[in-house]
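INTERNAL AUDIT FORM
Audit reference: QA-55
Scope: verify that the stored structure record matches its stored sequence.
Auditor: D.O.
Record contents follow.
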Amino acid sequence: MAAPIFWRDAALPHVEVRKVDDGRTVCYAPHSHREWSMGAITGGQSTFLCGERAYRVAAGELVQINPDEVHACNPIDGEPWSYLMLYVDAAWLAGQRHALGLTPAPQWRALKPDTLSHAEVFAEFVSLVESLLDGVAGERRQGRGAAGLSHQAVALTGRGRRPRMRARRAGRGGRLPRRRVHQCASVVAIEPPRPGQP
């Protein structure tokens, strides 16, 4: 099985990417991040817990997670699934959204919904993340990244010209079975160590 790929670049210090091609052995206990994050399910399906809401997500769908929101995504019965995750510094993104006139102040305002099913937005998101992973040269990457993230902010805030997105509702009971959470309750490393860290 291929190891997860992590991407960081000094040209975009407020952005990180994770790519997992085979998530069958990936199992996370509920956790949170300081960053806003968005993920694209690129193959198969998985469970997605966000706060108290539980979903089953499949290829072609997006998930978004607000800063400090407890969440977990896990394989279903050992089935293969793959995904791309983008982590963005919340203060930077809040500033970008404010600069675009999408919010009255540069402080973070939660984005909704948890899951999105929209082919055009999915394709644009995957294209943006793949361009970062492909190592497009510095300024071009930074310009595309900032423009792409700004476009995503417009699409996700419900203002301006954006395609209509269909939110998926939580599954029955809105919770994952306790046995699934228990199976994934071991401590896991979310990110590889940064250079110079043990």
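Auditor finding: record pair retrieved intact. Residues 5-166 form a domain with the Jelly Rolls fold (CATH 2.60.120.10).
Action required: none
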